[in-house]
Amino acid sequence: MSNKDCSFLPLLPLAIWTCCCLRQAAVGLENGLARTPPMGWMPFERFRCVTDCVQFPNDCISEALFKRTADLLVSEGYGALGYEYLIIDDCWMEPNRDAVTQKLVPHRTRFPGGMKALSNYIHDKGLKFGLYHDIGERTCMSLGPGAFGHFALDAQTFADWGVDYVKLDGCYADHMDFDLAYPEFGWALNKTGRPMVYSCSWPFYINKPNYERIKKHCNLWRFAEDVRDSHRSIFRIMQKYYTQQHTLVQSGGPGHWNDPDMLVLGNYLMSYDASRLQLAMWAVLAAPLIMSNDLQTVRPEIKKLLQNRAIIEVDQDPLGIPGESVYTLGNLQVWRRPIQPINNLGLHSYALAFVVLGDYFPCPLCPQTFEVVLEKLGLNNIMGYSVHDLFNISDELGIYKANDKFQTRINPQGVTFYKFKAQDFY
Ligand SMILES: *[C@@H]1O[C@H](CO)[C@@H](O)[C@H](O)[C@H]1NC(C)=O
Ligand SMILES: *[C@@H]1O[C@H](CO)[C@@H](O)[C@H](O)[C@H]1NC(C)=O
What we know:
Blueprint: H1 14-21, E1 39-41, H2 44-47, H3 63-75, E2 85-88, H4 114-124, E3 128-134, H5 151-160, E4 165-169, H6 178-192, E5 197-200, H7 202-205, H8 211-217, E6 220-222, H9 231-243, H10 245-251, E7 257-259, H11 272-284, E8 289-291, H12 300-306, H13 309-315, E9 324-329, E10 332-339, E11 349-356, E12 368-373, E13 385-389, E14 392-400, E15 405-410, E16 415-422
Parallel strand pairs: 1-2, 1-8, 2-3, 3-4, 4-5, 5-6, 6-7
Antiparallel strand pairs: 9-10, 10-11, 11-16, 12-15, 13-14, 13-16
Helix pairs in contact: 5-6, 11-12, 11-13
This protein binds 2-acetamido-2-deoxy-beta-D-glucopyranose (2 copies).
One 2-acetamido-2-deoxy-beta-D-glucopyranose (NAG) binds at residues 392, 394-395.
């Protein structure tokens, strides 16, 4: 039985489904997409579900917001750096399907030109078009219908609109078995013949996610709560990753990524140091870099962070190996991601992030100095590593050997982030 024959799978007993549909034991979803973590922009954390365009013309979820953002992604240089997916989140629909065709209908006053025209506008800018949907009866904000009962029709509608990326949420679906429904929607997407990145909220909604299965069906998946605009939120998501990092490190890779949710730097509450922390950590985790901010008002120093080429390069490293925490001492934690180049002994280079976990007892609001022998972090290339500060790549710190001590000084809520490039054997 082929992959495609499983489209009637809700009717099958689980045992048969497992035997016949999982046999194509591919490592992960192979639709050729998301070979590196997707990058782009999505409104939800910043703009939520504002629908009153009379009172809030700049903030409401509308065609105008997405056209403005498409323009800014290009004119401000984000697009050229890889931020290519412009994704519409919840609150874009009319409350009901079209009475005759049963198709989804974009909100008539907020999206007067319809989705195909907006999709063309985005594509004409050289960007890609993403769209939100929900697997259940209603979308999460409950303003529009979910996909339940209409998987094939909705997948085809998305394909007809030129959608390149689908975010599929999991609200109003209590009665559903996600382990069957998420793959089924994925097959509906596949059958349209249009390549679409498939972003799943699947593991977030279930108790014991089976990541082996999830990674075979989704290009990325949300493993933690919704991100909010605060250091506390970033920290909680990091800790959520930490508690299951052995599983998540195995799950992420080219074509299939762990998604800790949007980048929130550039909004209201995150300090400069917390902004650096989120960016560095997301790069260590091999996370999608999907900004949620107002590109018109992002402060210059935050824009510089979001456009840091060296850090984007770490995030987009072609090996696609997610990082993990390798060392904790008191309130200091070291996160390590293996990256290119691999030296002539076959040893990786690394990105290392040094993080403060909580208040530092003698002086909670002071920078803290941390010193460690590299070997303790698993950096044991006898030829050593040439070290660069990833926040200032021109800052060359010299060569460190495995038994050398490395010292760094971390601001409150902050991070220091370095590239350790493995030196070749003579
Ligand atoms: C559909 O799935 C097959 C098998 O995994 C894959 O080779 C193909 O690229 C997919 N097509 C699309 C449009 O996703
Ligand atoms: C970046 O590093 C260089 C070389 O060490 C240094 O001269 C410069 O002041 C640094 N820039 C910033 C913004 O820290």
